[in-house]
Amino acid sequence: MKKTLLTVATVLLVVAAQTGHAKLPTAAGQGDAQRLSVPGVPRGTNADAEKESKVSVERLPLATEPKDAQALFELGLRYANGDEGLAENLAKAAEYYAKAAEQGHALAQYHLAACYAKGTGVAKDSAKAVEWLTKAAGQGVAEAQYNLACHYTEGTGGDRDYALAFGWHQKAAAQGHALAQYSLAVCYAKGRGVAKDSAAAVEWLGKSAEQGVAWAQYDLAFHYAEGMGVARDYVLAFEWYRKAAAQGHAFAQHNLGLCYSKGMGVERNPVKAAEWIREAAEQGDALAQCTLGFYYSEGRGVERDDAKAVEWWLKSAAQGNALSQYDLGMCYENGRGVPKDMEKSIEWYRKAAKGGIGAAQERLKALGAE
Predict the structure, then answer these.
(1) Who is most buried in 87, 141, 250, 366, counting CB within 10 A?
(2) For residues 352 and 370, what is the distance between their CA atoms, to the nearest angstrom?
(3) Checking phi first, is residue 17 left (phi over 0); if not, alpha (psi -120 to 50) or beta?
(4) 192 part of a folded domain
(5) 154: CATH
């Protein structure tokens, strides 16, 4: 049942020769945005911004409302967090952020933007979120610059504008914002708002990866594996996949398994290959589930078990993986791991054929079930 892996709706790259069903997921700008998209990057995780936000708050007298912008901002924080004897009140928090923001307080402007973006204490309003992000970003708040760039990338609160997104990512990245550095690398890799430049993508991926961003580590590994913007180096590719995999990055875990399978940058070890691919498969990655099914069908790094192969192919096929659908057609046609059932075989072949698997169409023709 060995065959070349054809992927559907996945971002794929080749770090090594195919292992029957094994093809490596791609990096920034090389395919399906499902695997890599700036809009999917989590917000508000930048350590510097978190540090900025945790201002040392002294008890403020509430008999009279403070007038000073910093005091107003700190009072907003107290209401937001329910600190120092004040009950949590998100509406009050937004109110005091707004008063401080109107006086030009940069962090208050950023927090107010977050309120509008999430609908926290105020009605959700993307346009106002962008308005206040722009004010905070203009004062140099890196987290505001990053989030503003994401808004322009997604087109929320206004028209999508990749050039503006690139500019704000660049400003935040220059301040050491790890996620902005990664997003800037994506801009260079995809040519979003700037000319494609693989070398620049590698440069910024490296900065972000060194700060521990798993997606950056994963994509940097790809660039080393493919020699894009940097000399090909399978050892470094393996190391960056390993770091991302250790953080639970499913695609990196799958690729790390393939590195062990083919001995790419590391000594060949089929058992470790199967272990890492299982890690990814158990996280629900359809491609890893497909690969693990193949490993069970071949006894590669695991004891051969056709029933387990079918089990993993069913999980993968349910997510639309066309190759797993084809494999299930083969299993039902030949009674491998399941009772022979031509009706189910044809059903899976048809699904695989719709997914672009030519061999499935050939089987349907041979079975007179086109």
Answers:
(1) 141
(2) 12
(3) beta
(4) no
(5) 1.25.40.10
Record the tokens describing residue 148, joined without a space: 């503003």
Question: Does residue 63 carry a pLDDT above 70?
Answer: no
SS3 142: helix
For residues 259 and 276, is the Cβ–Cβ distance under 8 A?
A: no
Whether 255 maps to a domain, the answer reads: no
Single out the residue of 78, 74, 96, 95 nearest to residue 87, CA to CA: 78
Residue 70 inside a domain? The answer is yes
C-alpha distance from residue 364 to each of 1, 46, 76, 327, 344 (Å): 17, 53, 66, 13, 12
Place of tokens 């401080």: 100
Two tokens, residue 12 = 């794929």
Q: Tell me the average pLDDT across 105-115.
A: 97
pLDDT-derived band at 156 (thresholds 50, 70, 90) equals confident
Domain span at 82 = 47-176
Residue 12 lies in a domain: no
- How far apart CA 42 and CA 243 sit, in angstroms, is 19
Per residue in 253-299, pLDDT tens? 999 999 999 999 999 999 999 999 999 999 999 999 999 999 999 99
Cβ neighbours of 281 (radius 10 Å): 26
Distance CA 235, CA 219 (A): 15
pTM: 0.80
Residue of 238, 305, 306, 240 lying closest to 272 (CA atoms): 238
Residues 182, 219, 204: CA angle, nearest 5 degrees: 35
Instruction: Classify residue 41 by its DSSP letter.
Output: S
Q: Tell which wins on pLDDT, 197 or 15.
A: 197
Range list of β-strands (E), the chain:
12-13, 24-25
Supply the pLDDT for residue 85: 84
Q: Which of 264, 291, 265, 259 is nearest to 277 (CA)?
A: 291
